[in-house]
Amino acid sequence: MTGGDWLTLDVTASTEAWHRFHGLNRASIGGTASYKHKFGLGYAAPGISLALAGSHDNYRSAIRDSDSLEARAELGQRFNEAFDASLGAVFDRRYARSDLPVVPGMSGRVFDMHGKSAFVRAGYALTEQLQAGANFAVRRGDVVSTTRQHREIFLESDAIAADPAFGDDFFAYRLRGTSTTRTTAVTLSWALSNRSSVNFRYADERTSAYEGLDYRGRIAALSFAFNY
Amino acid sequence: MRICKLLLASVLGLAFAAGPAHAQSAEIAATVIDQQGRPVVDAVLVAVPVDGNLRSRERPRAGSIDQVDKEFLPRVTVVPVGASVTFPNHDDVRHQVYSFSPAKRFELPLYAGVPAQPIIFDKPGVVVLGCNVHDWMVGYIYVSESPFFAKTGKDGKAVLTELPLRAYVVRVWHPQLEMSEEATQKTIDVAHDRRIEATWTLKLKQEVRVRRAPTADRGRSKY
Fold first, then answer.
1. How many C-beta atoms lie closer than 10 Å to residue A130's C-beta?
2. Which residues in chain A are closer than 8 Å to B135, comparing Cβ atoms?
3. What are the residues whose beta carbons fall under 8 Å from the beta carbon of A168, sequence distance 6 or more?
4. Domain boundaries, chain B
5. Which one of A53, A94, A133 has the shortest CB-CB distance to B217?
6. What pLDDT, in 10s, does the model give residues A59-115?
7. Are the C-beta atoms of residues B149 and B46 closer than 8 Å to each other?
8. CATH code for the structural domain at B25-56+152-205
9. Would you say A197 and A188 are in contact if contact means Cβ atoms under 8 Å apart?
10. pTM higher than 0.90, yes or no?
11. Could you give the CA distance from residue A52 to residue A9 in angstroms, rounded to a whole number?
12. Which residue in the set B110, B215, B219 is minimally distant from A189, CB to CB?
């Protein structure tokens, strides 16, 4: 009995609508090529997957419109019909489309950024329809945030651009390279059919940048997933 | 004229010989329900003659289990020992069908269309099928040592037909059966009755399958 290798090509279309900050609304189209190897037969055989994903992300915002690339390696196993877990690493790269500087001599490509992450995740089917999940990720890389004029922050930044998504007097800025973000998330997924589900995700993000520059974000998201 | 009479006598003799063979068979009309009284679909009924004579009926020894929309179709198949089964893939993706079951261990490496060679099921027992690519896919082949078998439909009913007139041990199997298959056994004598109705009440466990629906906790997140 042997394992298996296969290559999958996916086309993905997604959209995101924000409750308060409509400038963060996004529509994306992209594709993923993934190679998977299973070390044996059966759902309990561990497997490794390597995926390369690319997308174009349209925010209707010159500073956020971008193209993204992500390379992901994941080692996972299903332990029984209900429980599976995996760990992996991700390299992400985002290419901003426009350079709109507001400070002479400083880049306006705030969303031109990259990072490296490690993650662990697990999923457990509570019932036939309901699946709970948890994941934890640590990302090291560029961080973008938005503030009103703030001299100390701007001195630590290497890109700044006006960010009307949060208001007329707000500026997005990028802290290059050395920021660490820890994300803890829990998820609930309700299967509507074999091909679709409604998903809730709550994430707590804590970022440590330079001294004194710490960020905390909490994001609740409701999404609909459809697999054709 | 004598030849004609002889021929007529021969034809009548054949008809007489053929008549009792058909008339000498009986059937068992089975109803399978769960503990809540709901009909049980895909329950397999097997009748084994008490005298051990299994040679009185021939059943087709070829079968086919399709893969349609990333599921095995039918989900439960009953075949006699020695049957050859093909696994045509009607999906536009490849499948890798396998079984770990003691009754038959096999693997069909990743394929599209119809595999060149069928699989021969030469031992009685239950063969659980899976696909290594699509973990939620599960199917069952019940390989029966007896040629007298049937499978219930959505109404929970099945008829064991063409049973020679004798006593049988009839048992029921189902993928979610919580009790042992032996615990379902009933001895039914059709030596004198052409049709006997019998009902089985099964204790079934909840089906647990790998989830197929997509989740949103994988992949990228951006904002």
1. 14
2. 43, 78
3. none
4. 25-56+152-205, 59-146
5. A133
6. 998 899 999 999 999 999 999 999 999 999 999 999 998 898 899 989 999 999 999
7. yes
8. 2.60.40.1120
9. no
10. no
11. 10
12. B215
Asked if A195 and B214 come within 8 Å (Cβ–Cβ), the reply is yes
Contact in structure between A185 and A206 (CB atoms under 8 Å): no
Residue in chain A closest to B106 (alpha carbons) equals A1
pLDDT digits (tens, 9 = 90+) for A4-16: 888 989 999 999 8
Continuous segment of H or E residues that includes residue B66? strand B66-68
Sole residue written with tokens 């034809």: B11
Assigned CATH class of B59-146: mainly beta
DSSP β-ladder status, A66-78 and A47-58? antiparallel
Closest residue of chain B to A119, computed from CA coordinates: B218
Is CATH 2.60.40 what the domain over A4-226 is classified as, yes or no?
no
Report the first-to-last Cα separation within chain B, whole angstroms.
Answer: 101
Closest Cβ–Cβ partner in A4, A189, A197 for B132: A4
Could you tell me which of A22, A15, A78, A73 has the C-alpha nearest to residue A46? A78
Considering only the C-alpha atoms of chain B, give the largest distance between any 2 of them, rounded to a whole number of Å: 101
Q: Give, for A95, the enclosing helix (H) or strand (E).
A: strand A83-96
